[in-house]
């Protein structure tokens, strides 16, 4: 991988009111960065993201989009942060279908609504025997929040962490909650990490898009600080995924496949 770094001043002068007086100070603001992915010389997509762990983001994004099935299909990735481009060479010609076409499909004998044709190919039914205690679920969420230095400094990013039922393994951060999950997936694919005993702790809302990414990664338990949507829960029921929401303080809500929360 070739990476050309860019630097940007992230400080911003603000006027703060603390309930009594006004004061002027410099604060750190999260960076919003457009990265255009070029596959085999053809522009494929532009991702609005945080410019950290970009290599993992690209790998996870391509897997989520169904472009790759395994890491070895990528020959090279050259990232030019100054220009905002990532040049990816693959081991075969790229065939781009109609990624914007809405598609209603069924899978595994159950009726499911998928917004994109690629989701029918890549969404997986999860058959995980992993369990985690309520107490550990709460502690893992607290640990992720505590360890997210950029969130503590700026309050402007989402976090996702790959964990076992006992400990947090690593955390990824981005302005986009879906990007944080792609970074997790990219790291997993690159390092060939087994997901049999893994779960994901997550700071963002659990939308249908998020739930499908969890399915494509191959995770059976998702613990979120925020709320799920109805479509996400319908998909979770279908795909065998445990969704825990509103994991805050010492409380949480179990929405689907609660047999994994003990």
Task: Write a short abstract of this structure.
This protein is of the alpha/beta class and 262 residues long. It is built from seven helices and 15 strands. The strands form four sheets. The protein has a six-stranded mixed β-sheet with strand order 11-10-12-13-14-15, sandwiched between helices. A five-stranded mixed β-sheet has the order 1-6-7-4-5, covered by helices on one side. It has a two-stranded antiparallel ribbon with strand order 2-3.
Protein architecture, described:
There is one protein chain. The chain is of the alpha/beta class and 262 residues long. The chain has a domain at 120-260: Cytidine Deaminase, domain 2 (3-Layer(aba) Sandwich), CATH 3.40.140.10. Helix content is 27%, strand content 34%. It contains seven helices and 15 strands. The chain has helices at residues 54-64, 117-122, 134-147, 149-154, 177-191, 208-217, 230-239; strands at 2-4, 11-17, 22-28, 33-39, 42-49, 74-80, 85-90, 103-107, 110-114, 158-163, 168-174, 199-202, 221-224, 242-248, 251-256. The chain has a six-stranded mixed β-sheet, sandwiched between helices. Strand 12, helix 6 and strand 13 form a beta-alpha-beta unit. The chain is flat. The model is unreliable at 98-115 (pLDDT under 50).
């Amino acid at each position: 991988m070739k990476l050309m770094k860019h630097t940007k001043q992230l400080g911003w002068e603000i006027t703060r009111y603390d309930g009594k007086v006004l004061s002027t100070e410099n604060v750190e603001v999260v960076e919003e960065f457009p990265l255009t992915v070029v596959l085999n010389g053809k522009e494929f997509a532009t991702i609005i993201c945080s410019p950290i762990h970009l290599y993992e983001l690209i790998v996870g994004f391509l897997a989520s989009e169904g472009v790759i099935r395994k890491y070895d299909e990528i020959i090279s990735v050259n990232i030019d942060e100054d220009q905002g481009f990532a040049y990816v060479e693959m081991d075969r010609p790229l065939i781009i279908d109609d990624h914007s076409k809405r598609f209603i499909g069924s899978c595994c004998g159950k009726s499911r609504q998928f917004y994109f044709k690629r989701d029918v190919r890549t969404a997986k039914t999860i058959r995980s025997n992993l369990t985690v205690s309520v107490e550990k679920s709460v502690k893992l969420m607290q640990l992720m929040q505590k360890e997210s230095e950029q969130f503590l400094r700026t309050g402007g990013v989402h976090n996702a962490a790959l964990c076992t039922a006992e400990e947090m393994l690593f955390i990824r951060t981005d302005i986009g909650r879906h990007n944080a999950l792609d970074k997790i997936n990219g790291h997993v694919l690159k390092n060939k990490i087994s997901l049999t005993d893994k779960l994901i702790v997550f700071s963002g809302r659990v939308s249908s898009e998020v739930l499908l990414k969890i399915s494509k990664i191959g995770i059976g338990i998702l613990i979120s600080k925020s709320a799920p949507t109805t479509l996400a829960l319908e998909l979770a029921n279908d795909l065998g995924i445990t969704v825990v929401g509103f994991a805050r303080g010492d409380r949480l809500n179990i929405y689907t496949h609660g047999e994994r929360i003990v």
